[in-house]
Amino acid sequence: MVIEVKNVYKSFKNVQAVKGINLDIHQGQFIALLGPNGAGKTTLVEMIEGIQKPDAGEILLMGKPWKGNEDELHHILGLSLQETRYIDKLTVKETLLLFASFYELSEDRVNEIIGLIDLQEKQNAYVVNLSGGQRQKLALGISLINNPKILILDEPTTGLDPNARREVWNILHKLKKQRHTSLILTTHYMEEAEQLCDYIVLIDHGTILKQGSLDQLLDEKQGNKLVEFTLEETDNSAEPFKNFSNFSVDWDSFNKKGILQLNEMETGLPEFFKYLKQNGLRLKNMEFRRKTLDDLFVSLTGRRLDE
After folding, report:
1. Confidence band (pLDDT; 50, 70, 90) for 237?
2. Strand, helix or coil at 294?
3. What is the pLDDT confidence band of residue 159, given thresholds at 50, 70 and 90?
4. pLDDT for 240-260, tens place per residue?
5. Is residue 222 within 8 Å of 234, Cβ to Cβ?
6. Integer Cα distance of 11 and 13 in angstroms
7. Domains of the chain (ranges plus CATH)?
8. Beta-sheet strand order (sheet of 77-80)
9. What proportion of the chain, given as a percentage, has pLDDT over 90?
10. CA–CA gap between residue 277 and residue 273 (Å, rounded)
11. Containing H/E element for 142?
12. Percent helix, strand and coil across the chain, each to the nearest 5
């Protein structure tokens, strides 16, 4: 086991940020901690990084606690926090050489990293002149300079435009193929977790709501096909589905909008249409789609991931 989090708690004054979390991470596994802002993701990874100490519980990296093993664990860990500050008048290559010197690494390793993060054309540019996406790629390069066994990225693409975000994803896809590094990624972007990680942990208010692979979380037996629909205004549409027990309908009475969960469209839709006709309800529009992690989060919390 690369990382073991055992019944960990952490509070700040009157706020309990992490409440009894248990989590195991294996060699080469890419894990996403997915949840809204304030869910406890950053506090949890800061304890794994050794920046914060748990109030209760235990965290082991490679079977060892932080206390008494700081030097060894720092050498196997790579970090990229939510914000990275640089020396503006150093170039990209000089910045990487500086961090490489902390680990007594050669210029060959720096050149390798520059290729990995695709900043060859910018290696002699001052950091102050880099775009937001280029600065984030540099931060990722710094976190990888020591070839870490454990990489922790805290909201690495927040604030980036879609193209810059995908460039960061491409770097992580290349890293994932090597199966050498285990990744913990905190994010509130559903697509980011789906694209990069083979195991997803939904977290909110300091607790794990659900965890598993994407297929496990969106289990077809749980009704993974969704129909979003709105109704025409009628006298019957205040609580139109209170007597509809065949399937799960999440109804928004204010917007006259609903989401119907189905296992099988072929058998479910005719029953749905029959119910509408019997109750004098008329469809305004409808859309078919597959269930997403955001839908799952809403079903567990009543809120969306980006709220």
Report:
1. low
2. helix
3. confident
4. 887 777 677 888 777 778 888
5. no
6. 6
7. 3-217 (3.40.50.300), 220-291 (3.30.70.100)
8. 77-80, 150-154, 182-187, 30-34, 199-204, 207-212
9. 61
10. 6
11. helix 132-144
12. 35, 30, 35
